[in-house]
Amino acid sequence: MKIGISTASLYPLHTEDALLEVAKLGVKNVEIFLNSVNELEGEVFAHMQNTIREYDMKLVAAHPFSTPMETLFLFSSYDRRVNEIMDLYRHYFDLINRLGGENALFVIHGAIKSAKCSDECYIERLGNLIQAGRQQNITVIQENVCYCKSGSVDFLEKLACTLGDSVKFTLDIKQARRSGLEPSEIVRRLKDKITHLHLSDADEEHDCLPLGKGNFDFALFFDELKQVEFKGSAVVELYRDNYGEYSELSDSVNFLKKLLEKP
Question: Are 58 and 27 a contacting pair, CB within 8 Å?
Fold first, then answer.
């Protein structure tokens, strides 16, 4: 399993600087959260390319800052906006490939709960984006997000049943908590369609903590994933006010590695 860190954990540090900090922690696998269109080209993009080469890193996934726009663009009834975001995301796919993200993942949130987008329209648009990604060797994956339609496990299961083998999912356990869902229920219902994890710990007072600093039963969680033959990747994704030193991110990675080494 590829285990790494999302640069989102260092936001609002500039993306190229966040990537460098992850590299200096000795973590080889990374999910890059892109925070500006300007990061798709020029000096910033070159900086990220150099860091990945110099530290021999692997880009396992990318996450666009434009996810809040998906309701207004990708899942709208206005065709020009749909075409615009499809073109933007094809540009993202090209960037991922140029960063060495061979067969990398592209994470979307999808439409918010109040969006005037039928399930049928959503499925069609997501299917089109998945196909566009496949044409550039990128796997588009739907994340569960508490304020989006994807915050419902029933909705996720409907996507899984309708789109079949083409659809894959990111399971974010902090977002599951915020949706009032047990991560184990999502695992049980989506099974091997889960290909990527956003990991954090939690306790009674905090829903997002470094791994090992809360009371979430990671051993049981990974036993459940093993039962559905999970073979994907996992990244630590915290918010900047959830931890102190950057070393707590690499400590979280090491916590998970030690856990998975146990027989």
Answer: no
**Structure-token pair, residue 40:** 């798709």
Comparing C-alpha atoms, which of 73, 193, 196 is closest to residue 129? 73
- 229 near 216, Cβ under 8 Å? no
104: phi then psi, degrees, rounded to nearest 5: -75, 170
Instruction: Kindly report, residue by residue over 158-209, the tens digit of the pLDDT.
Output: 999 999 999 999 999 999 999 999 999 999 999 999 999 999 999 999 999 9
* Residue 139 CB neighbours (<10 A): 18
CA distance 240 to 258: 24
- Residue 129's Cβ-count burial label (10 Å; 0-12, 13-18, 19+) is buried
Q: pLDDT band at 105, cuts 50/70/90?
A: very high
Phi, psi of 197 (to 5 degrees): -125, 140
Backbone angles phi, psi at 234, to 5 degrees: -140, 130
Is the pLDDT assigned to residue 263 strictly greater than 80?
no
Q: Given this model, what pLDDT does residue 19 score?
A: 98
Report the alpha-carbon distance of residue 36 to residue 50 in Å, rounded: 19
**Burial letters 22-47, b for 16+ CB under 10 A, else e:** bbebebbbbbbbbbeeebbeeebbeb
What's the token pair of residue 79? 């065709």
DSSP annotation of 232? -
Longest dimension (CA), the chain: 54
pTM (2 d.p.) = 0.96
113 closest CA partner among 65, 172, 56, 70: 70
